[in-house]
Design goal:
Elements lengths: L1 E8 L2 E8 L8 E4 L1 E3 L6 H8 L2 E2 L2 H9 L1 E5 L4 H4 L20 H10 L4 E7 L28 H12 L2 E6 L12 H17 L6 E4 L16 H11 L4 E4 L5 E2 L14 E2 L7 H10 L11 H6 L2 E4 L2 E6 L17 H9 L6 E6 L10 H17 L9 E2 L16 E2 L5 E20 L7 E10 L2 E8 L6 E20 L4 E8 L7
Parallel strand pairs: 1-3, 3-5, 6-7, 6-15, 7-8, 8-9, 9-10, 11-14, 14-15
Antiparallel strand pairs: 1-2, 4-13, 12-13, 16-18, 17-22, 18-21, 18-22, 19-20, 19-21
Helix pairs in contact: 4-5, 4-11, 6-7
């Protein structure tokens, strides 16, 4: 059935037609952000925040769930994590470099996008940039005619992997760094090359690091001009961390917040006016609360600014020989998955190639085990075929993410009878984030020996929430949504039994 739904974008309300069988309320949606009117009450602000929705690019990015960092460069050959910019390009010579091997290994881990460190803080560029001589063009690799970015992008394209670039604004090699106008021009040149010469780029990742110290060079990054280059050359890309589409979760541990709002009072990007908003509210990436009703009541606006959780598969971000036996265990990666993807975030897992230019066997094997574990765990939804007590709730278990259970007055209880008793240790809930993020509190109960027992509870859901519980066996469950910012839409619900960790 067709319905007309209003959306807000760039200060203009317009209508689009959506085709769906549920969650059919007509409402105004604010794409990416909304500014609260003067005098808005806390309740009005919460209601408006509930109707902030992602851009198509942000939605597509969230649906990836698993992405990968590839930290590779001069540090791979020096054994350092942060180079100082004085390293000789002659050190860079990955004689067995094979980008297709990288992509195969990542795909076996269930990863959908590769983000390459085209330039790290040391300033060494993995493509033959015309902006500096500190690049692969001055190395012996491929006789000085190689281009890592090109080969990786071609491998991704041919094997169905999305591709993004990491470009560090901090550059310890560039003589112009600290001369703000001059360096900003150099950086825009490098960014333009990357976004012009390699086809589609899906994510641009800006590290905001500037580790010069109080007596070091001080560079004022011209974020607005960087964003203009991206919007002009790669309008389909999301910009991350110091970008305006995706935020850093605040740590590099692989763990997100138990309450993770994609709609935040925390303002995105590096523009001065956004930084001023965050200073006024006392917010940074590591703040525990970024989107509660209490915080929104103090705010003048709300933003769709979802979390990306980054962590390395090894202790370091670059490859070090001594860490070959320190690759994270499968059990650890599974726990990270629960606490990142399962906490309404996207997991960015770093996998660093070695000096040969290959992903080491230790990392490749663990990725393969990880991908197999994910596939085995989520292969059978034990709620499939269950009978919903109320017809509208069945839309949450029909296996179709484009349909959903539209809630009414809170609290609302959805009860399901399974086809047969089942044992499970994991619960999955998903909101249709095309209609915003709204659920503030929920719990799940199971019928055990004829009595309802609470087996899990939480606050936010968002795109995907996973709850690991003690194993329970039952033939009936009920999902109770107790608090919500208006009508929520539960796209999917599931019960799963975790796969084991045998290798």
């Amino acid at each position: 059935m067709k319905r007309s739904t209003s959306y807000y974008l760039s200060g203009v309300i317009f209508s689009v037609l959506l085709i769906t069988n549920s969650c059919r309320e007509e409402s105004t949606y604010y794409i990416k952000s909304v500014t609260f009117p003067a005098g808005a009450t806390p309740q009005q602000k919460a209601e408006m925040a509930a109707r902030v929705a992602p851009t198509p690019q942000q939605l597509a990015w969230q649906q990836l769930e698993l992405t990968a960092f590839i930290h590779f460069g001069i540090n791979t050959f020096t054994g350092r994590e942060w180079g100082d910019g004085t390293e000789s390009p002659a050190l860079f010579n990955p004689e067995a470099f094979d980008a297709r091997q990288w992509v195969r290994a990542l795909q076996e881990g269930g990863i959908k996008m590769l983000i390459l460190t085209a330039k790290h803080h040391d300033g060494f560029c993995l493509w033959p940039t015309s902006a500096t001589g500190h690049s692969v063009a001055a190395s012996p690799w491929r006789g000085g005619r190689g281009d890592v970015v090109k080969e990786v992008k071609e491998a991704c394209d041919s094997m169905g992997m999305k591709f993004g670039v990491y470009l560090s604004p901090w550059d310890r090699n560039a003589p112009s760094y600290g001369d703000s106008p001059g360096y900003n021009e150099l950086f825009r040149q490098q960014l333009t090359e990357l976004l012009s010469n390699y086809g589609r780029i899906d994510e641009v990742w800006f590290d905001g690091a500037c580790g010069e110290g109080p007596n070091g060079k001080r560079q004022e990054y011209d974020w607005a001009s960087y964003y203009e280059v991206i919007s002009r050359l790669q309008p389909g890309a999301v910009t991350a961390i110091k970008g305006e589409d995706v935020r850093w979760v605040g740590t590099e541990t692989g763990y997100g917040r138990p309450t993770e709002w994609s709609v935040t009072a925390f303002a995105p990007g590096g523009r001065p006016e956004m930084a001023a908003i965050n200073r006024q509210l006392g917010l940074n990436e590591m703040s525990e609360d970024l989107g509660s009703r209490e915080l929104l009541a103090k705010a003048g606006s709300a933003f769709w600014y979802p979390a990306e959780v980054d962590v390395s598969i090894r202790p370091g971000w670059f490859w070090h020989k001594e860490e070959n036996n320190q690759v994270k265990s499968l059990e650890k990666l599974a726990d990270i998955y629960f606490n990142s993807v399962g906490m309404n975030a996207v997991l960015l897992l770093n996998v660093p190639p070695d000096t040969r230019g290959l992903i080491h066997d230790s990392d490749a094997l663990r990725l393969k085990e990880f991908g197999r574990w994910i596939g085995n765990t989520f292969s059978v939804n034990l709620l499939t075929g269950a009978k919903a007590r109320k017809r509208k709730h069945s839309a949450a278990i029909d296996g179709n993410p484009d349909t959903g259970w539209e809630t009414g007055r809170m609290p609302e209880i959805a009860e399901f009878s399974l086809k047969q008793p089942a044992r499970f240790d994991m619960i999955e809930l998903k909101e249709d984030i095309r209609k915003g993020q709204k659920v503030e509190a929920f719990r799940v109960e199971a019928a055990v020996q004829g009595e309802w027992q609470e087996i899990a509870s939480g606050t936010t859901i968002g795109y995907r929430r996973l709850l690991k519980i003690n194993p329970v066996e039952t033939d009936k469950i009920r999902i109770i949504l107790s608090e919500s910012r208006g009508k929520a839409c539960i796209a999917e619900a599931g019960l799963y039994q975790s796969a084991g960790f045998s290798r």
